[in-house]
Each structure stands twice: as C-alpha cells, then as structure tokens.
Sequence to fold (469 residues):
Amino acid sequence: MVVILAPLLFFEGQRTQIFQVRQHLNQILGTAGALALISATLITMILPMLFSITLPLALIIVAISTPTDATALESVVAGRAFPHAVHEQLTLESLFNDATGLILLQAGVIWWQTGHLSFWQNTGSLLYSAGGGMIIGFVIALLFTGVRQWLLRAGVSAIYAQNLVYLLTPVVIYLLAESVDVSGIIAVVVAGLVNNSEANRSRFSSPRQMHLGLNLVNFLSNILNGMVFVILGLNLEQIFTSRYFIHNNDWQWLGIGSAVYVGLLVWRAIYARFGVGDHSWRTASLFSLGGVHATVTLAMTFSLRGTLPMNTYNQIILIEVVVIILSMVVSTLVFNISLPVDLDSRSRPARQAKIREDMVKAGIARVDQMDLNPVVKELVLYDLNDQVQSNTLGSFFKQWHGVSRHQEKITVLQSVDQRRALMHAFNEERRYLHTLALTHQVPSDEIYDLYSEVLLAESLVLDPKTRLI
Fold:
C-alpha cells in the first residue's frame, strides 16, 4: 500500500487536471461513491445466499473487487476505437473508487474481527475519511510545492535532491493521512492533482529537473505496475503448491469469483444505462466492461496478509485472481468483436516511420551541402542514419572500434564541425516537420512526437555534460 499503491495513484493523479475533476464532479461522486457502495452492498447480501460464506467475508471480497484500473483499461482497448467520453469517465472513476473500496474493506475486516457492523458509523467514517484525506492531501502537497518553488527561485540547483523529495511525497502524505485515520489514498490522489497544476506553471523554470522527473515517473509507474503482478505470481506459486490447495477439493473460490464479477458487471451496466452518457445499452455495456480490475485489487488483497487466517487469505487471493482474469479476458474478447478497429492508431507506426525516413533524408541533404572533413562527415551521416535504425551491426562495431582507439579520435576543431553539422541537420529536420504540419495531412500529435525526438537528439549534441562529442 505504501511502496506501490500510493506512488502509482499519485502519479495517476498528476496526469489529471483539476478542472477535469471539477467539470465531472457529479459523475465521479456517482461512480466512485454511489455505484461502488450500492453494488458492494447488494452483492454482499447475495453471496451468502449462493455460497457457504459469512456476510463479513463477502463484504471483504466485494470491497477488494470494487476498484477499477485505468492502466488495465488501456491494455484491453488497445487498437480499438473506444468512445472518448466513456474512456474519460472510466479513468476518473478509477482515480477515486479505490478509497471507497479501502473503506469498505476496513469495515469488512472490523466486522470479521468484532462481529458488529454499524451502518451510520461506517457512513460517518466514509465521509470523515474521504474529506479528511482531501484536506490533508491538498495542504501537504501545497506545502511541498511551496518549498520546491522557493528552492527554484532561490537559485538552489539541487535537481537530484528535489526529485528525490518529489518521489517520496506520496509516501509521506499517505503515512501522515493514515496516522490521523483519514484516507491516504484520497490524499495522494489529491496531491497528484495539485502537482499537475504546479508542473504546468513551472515546467520551464528548471527544464532538466522537469524532464528527469517525468522520465522517473514513467519508469517507476511501469516498474511498480509490473511488480504487483510479479508478487501475484509468487503468491500463486506458493498457494498452488501448498497443502491447502493440493488437499482441498472445494472449488468454491472459482464460483465466488465468477459470481462477484458477473454481479459487478450487471450493476455497472444498470447504473450506466440511467446515469452515464446517452443512456443507451451500448454505452452502458462499454462502461460496464470497461471497469477492469488489476493492480489496486491485487495490492488490497496482499494487504490482508496477517490479518485473516492463512486459509481464508489464500482463498481470497484465488477469488480475486478469478475476478481480475475474467475482467481482462472478457473485456478484451468483447471489445475485439464489437468495437471497430482504430485504423488511425494501427497505421500510425508505418506512417511515422515514413515521415521519419523523409525527415532524416532532409537532414542528410543539408549535410551534403556543407564543406566537411570526410572523417567528420562519415560520423555525422552515421548519427543521422541511426535515427531510422538503418545502420548495420557491422557498421556499429566499426564505429565503436574507431571511437575506442585513441589515435583515431577527431581533433577539437573537427569536433566543433561535427556538432555544427548535426545542428544544421536537425534544424533542417524540424523545418521539414513544420512544413508537413502546415499541410494538415498528418495528426498534430504525431508531428509533435517526432519533433520532440529531434529536440532530444539535439540536446545530446549541445549539452556539455553528456560528453558524447
């Protein structure tokens, strides 16, 4: 919860602008609040009628299955034309329904341990936890923002230290929020929203720090998402090889997991039919199937270790794995059958490859016009051809051997010529992309993508700290 889930939700919140949340606040309260609570209550009451489990255990199982995952949604709709409005609604829902699931989980665990459940007490706890989490997240994030901005404006250049503080921010906020019994999850999501506004208005005050921070966020997001599934694999291996599983002929977990998934699917569709988009059954089915479960569900499951008896804990893991697998497999199959292929997205790699090739040709043509030493020209042309990966493995080792030999290093003057030639080539490549953008034949985001590649390549040439030329 602290090391994986808090940073992931903080990073996810940072990708969302506050005005989006304000604009869709009623929808968020409906999906992350009302939908989650009603579906959890109804399914909790139904499960003990179908299977030999208690109400507290049913609530624990349903609470863990409540949160949805925006990252998993991207994987199941990849290559398909998914309605933007529904996609946005699902993304915003996944930001905030984690807190609802966690509060329901806490209520279920207390009910399991004490045998008592107070509706009004838990409703009050929900409001206190969510409201307190919002306040804590906003205030502490604003405090961190003020400190970082003061350091930047005071001329304190401590890029790595500031980025380290930034990466520790969700952990600190989560722990502080939980220490005063409010939702640490809501706190880190709100802190991420605050950081989005900060990044938008201070991105040029320290470009190196901003660029490093964004790369770190993308890197850690992928690592943490993958880590959860690695932990899942290790847990499943232990369960499937344990005496509990080998000598247990009760496959009730498979039925419970299937029932929970179907129940959530049905109630999501009913809610969406009357409260989302154009109120059509098609939109309702897309919204329902788009509620994919993954990382947060697993993290909440693992948080129960040591809280419940081991056999019960193992059973819950198996149930939640069924929910996750069904939600991803069924959604993928249905979307692949019912949704049209996103032709623009599918043709994008080939289209970008052709543009990149023409762009590099423009840069090479500019270099051919320059009066350069043959050694310098060979190095420059090799670098430019590397932009389209047209250099062979043999040519790479030839260049590597030449650079590695001291006597074949180019002189200082030739190094200046090499840098100048690459700058002229990159300038010509940008000019080509700008001309192409004016024709409006290619989507702007594809042009920006290639343009940013050229700028990053040029930054490697210009930055004296890289020592690559």
Observations:
- The radius of gyration is 27 Å.
- The chain has 20 helices and no strands.
- Residues 119-153 form the longest helix (35 residues).
